[in-house]
Write a structure and sequence with these properties.
heterodimer, A: MetI-like fold, two-stranded antiparallel sheet, 2 strands, globular, B: 276 residues, mainly alpha, 2 domains, 15 helices, Carbohydrate ABC transporter permease (chain B)
């Protein structure tokens, strides 16, 4: 009886989720190109990954992307949600505006931002020009931001300005989702906590750190986790906006998922790409577990 | 004194919120105004902030050159067949997990949630190879069937079904209902808001899906809109008037859906976050 109800679910999951994952695991031990599996090569694909400089570069870029986009998104979204929670008029209108980019496709957004970032005719450089700030080449700039800011005196180059352009865009696009989640979380905090804090003589800053922040921590944890996981899967903006070839300039925007895609569908190395997919999975899983362990000690459940 | 301070902080709050809102709106404004400029005006620097002529025919041109009629039909077909599958599989699956007793129910449910945790890019290579074995590459099957089950939606609907008391089922049995009839005649009508939520998520997901259709399609005949738009970008590369017009066309249906159901959409996303 139950099996009958679950039949569609089980069949689809088995054929399109479970079997592919097992299959990928098997493939990752083969030399597998356009002619199919040619040779069982044990861990050679994985060993090759360890020695693959392009992979490490892509992983580094992905970490940079995550390291900048996640905190920016988190802090700005929380800040806006707190502002919106101050009983402002037009809350619905603001929320709608902030949410609009979330439902807009990443493809249309990539096109528009590529145009805004245009080094000669872009809107952004026009605004910088207007404010008497130096214009930039944005997506075409391969120099690292630390390198640019210190004139090359800082030992670490940092993410290229091209990669940071993708970071800014991702913050713009993803912000509204987190604002809505934070706002719902804030609205769940009962007023009497704040009243009690005020009676105890807490100022706004103290009541934020001692009331809002701990009570919001489960929501914060969710936002942090989801934003991190999503940031590690960035692909479309790289494909759409960078290069040619995508990942440029000088490979500074090449990310793990793009590298995986390139190996599978440009170079037709299915075995190697499958091994990359597993490595990506392990990285995301590890990050999830680390974040869970670190945060669990600090998350306060009511 | 206190009153003035209060108003000042309100003023700062509104100022920041409006500044933020402007930043959110500007890219949309820029897309739409670029879409109606002449090519010559679009590449002027400094740019004109308001188009001097409105060339509405740019939309018709983009529609034709980008083959949008085809893409939109394809996308609608994919979106609604996927939705039908998602609703059917989620309703049945959620019912089994919420109301039926069977061996290994919890293990099955937890392992399904575990599979859901595996990120999408991990699938693209093995999924592609499985579809190749099935001979489904560049067919609608490849775009629809793998996405007709959503564990996330089963989870949402299961929570909802669980909240409906079992006494209702016992009463229905007395009236001669079996599980199948009880589900479709009583439970489903009671779950309309949740089903609307699921439908909205599913339609937005289908309309915006990119990486999977990019990988499994080769021909224009079945390509959905995002992939079509992406290839249009590669063809046109620097013609931002046409590209903006095409982007505007691709964005409008979803923005309409969003404005029609924005309360529902925003609260669904908010709830999905809190429960997730």
């Amino acid at each position: 009886m139950a099996l009958l109800f679950l039949l569609p679910v089980i069949v689809v999951i088995l054929v399109f989720r479970f079997i592919p994952i097992l299959y990928a695991f098997v493939i990752s031990f083969y030399k597998w190109g356009i002619t199919g599996p040619t040779k069982f090569i044990w861990f050679s694909n994985y060993i090759k990954i360890i020695h693959d400089a392009v992979f490490w570069r892509a992983l580094g870029n992905t970490f940079y992307y995550s390291l900048f986009s996640v905190p920016l998104n988190f802090v700005i979204a929380l800040f806006i949600a707190i502002l919106l929670n101050q009983k402002v008029k037009g809350l619905g209108v603001f929320r709608t505006i902030y949410f609009l980019p979330v439902v807009t496709s990443i493809i249309a957004v990539s096109i528009v931002f590529k145009w805004i970032y245009h080094p000669r005719m872009g809107l952004l450089n026009f605004v910088l020009n207007f404010l008497h700030l130096p214009t930039q080449t944005w997506l075409e700039e391969s120099r690292g931001i630390f390198q640019m800011m210190t004139g090359g005196h800082f030992p670490i180059k940092g993410p290229s300005l091209a990669l940071m352009s993708l970071v800014f865009m991702s913050v713009w696009k993803g912000l509204g989702y987190n604002v809505v989640i934070f706002l719902a979380g804030l609205q769940n905090i009962p007023d009497y906590y704040y009243d009690a804090a005020r009676i105890d003589g807490a100022n706004r800053w103290q009541s934020f750190w001692n009331v809002t922040f701990p009570l919001l921590s489960p929501v914060s944890f969710y936002v942090l986790l989801m934003t991190t996981i999503t940031s590690f899967q960035v692909f479309a903006p790289v494909w759409m906006m960078t290069g040619p070839p995508p990942g440029g300039p000088l490979g500074t925007t090449n990310v793990v998922v793009y590298y995986l895609y390139e190996n599978a569908f440009t170079y037709i190395r299915y075995g190697y790409a499958s091994a990359l997919a597993f490595v990506l999975f392990m990285i995301i899983l590890t990050l999830t577990l680390i974040q869970r362990n670190v945060t669990e000690k600090k998350v306060y459940y009511e | 004194m206190n009153k003035i301070h209060f108003n000042l902080s309100k003023f700062v709050i509104y100022l920041l919120l409006i500044l933020g809102a402007v930043i959110m709106i500007v890219p949309f404004y820029w897309m739409i105004t670029t879409a109606v400029k002449t090519p010559a005006e679009s590449i002027k620097f400094p740019p004109t902030l308001w188009p001097s002529h409105f060339v509405w025919s740019n939309f018709a041109k983009a529609w034709k050159e980008a083959n949008f009629g085809r893409y939109i039909l394809n996308t609608l077909f994919i979106a609604f067949t996927t939705l039908a599958g998602v609703l059917f599989s989620s309703i049945l699956g959620a019912y089994a997990f919420a109301k039926l007793q069977f061996k290994g129910r919890n293990i099955l449910f937890i392992s399904m949630l575990g599979i859901m945790m595996i990120p999408m890019p991990v699938y693209i290579v093995p999924g592609y190879l499985v579809l190749m074995k099935l001979g489904w590459i560049d067919t609608f099957y490849a775009l629809i069937i793998p996405w007709t089950v959503s564990v996330f939606n089963i989870f949402l609907l299961r929570q909802h079904f669980k909240s409906i008391p079992n006494e209702l089922y016992e009463a229905a049995v007395l009236d001669g209902c079996n599980h199948w009839q009880f589900l479709w005649k009583i439970l489903v009508p009671l779950s309309k808001p949740m089903l609307v939520t699921i439908s909205i998520f599913s339609l937005i997901g289908s309309w915006n899906s990119f990486i999977w259709p990019l990988v499994v399609t080769n021909s224009d005949k079945i390509r959905p809109i995002q992939v079509g738009l992406a290839y249009f970008m590669q063809e046109q590369s620097t013609n931002y008037v046409l590209l903006s017009a095409a982007s505007t066309i691709s964005v409008i249906p979803l923005i309409l859906l969003f404005f029609l159901a924005q309360k529902q959409i925003i609260s669904s996303y908010a709830k999905s976050g809190i429960k997730g």
